[in-house]
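Homework help board

Subject: predicted structure for assignment chain

Our instructor gave us this sequence and asked us to write out the predicted structure in token form, then describe one feature. I got the tokens but I'm not sure how to describe them. Can anyone check?
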Amino acid sequence: KNRIRATVVKQNTILANSTNYIIPHKMGDIYWLLGVLSSKLMDWRFRKLSTNNHVNTYELDSLPIPKSLAKEIKMSLDVHVKEILQVVYEIELMNEKMGKYSSLQTKFENLEKEINTLVYMLYDLTKKEIEIIENSLK
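My token output:
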């Protein structure tokens, strides 16, 4: 399981004291950022540099989040993250109804892989660097 867990919450949601939050300048800026924060790369980095179980504010501030990124990657991240949020919502509904969980789980895993691939591209990682990250998180 990822040490960093990121999602979008509705306005006026009460968060526990061990929860950090980011208020975006524009709502459109939140989805690509959610993809980056939830990626294997950020999870790997956090595991290597932190001994905490919680993400402290200073640790969140120190994550290497790009200030600008290629429009294509940003758009793809936005699309995939919005889609994965919808899949999570559908999984939650299906868990209640015990329906087509396995196909939604597969869709979730495929979207997660796509998001990680886009984040690796964003940081120009080599195949060897990606292998190190992927193997260390198994």
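Reply (TA_rk): Your tokens look well-formed. For the description, you could write something like this. Residues 2 and 43 are 6 Å apart (CA to CA). That's the kind of observation they're looking for.
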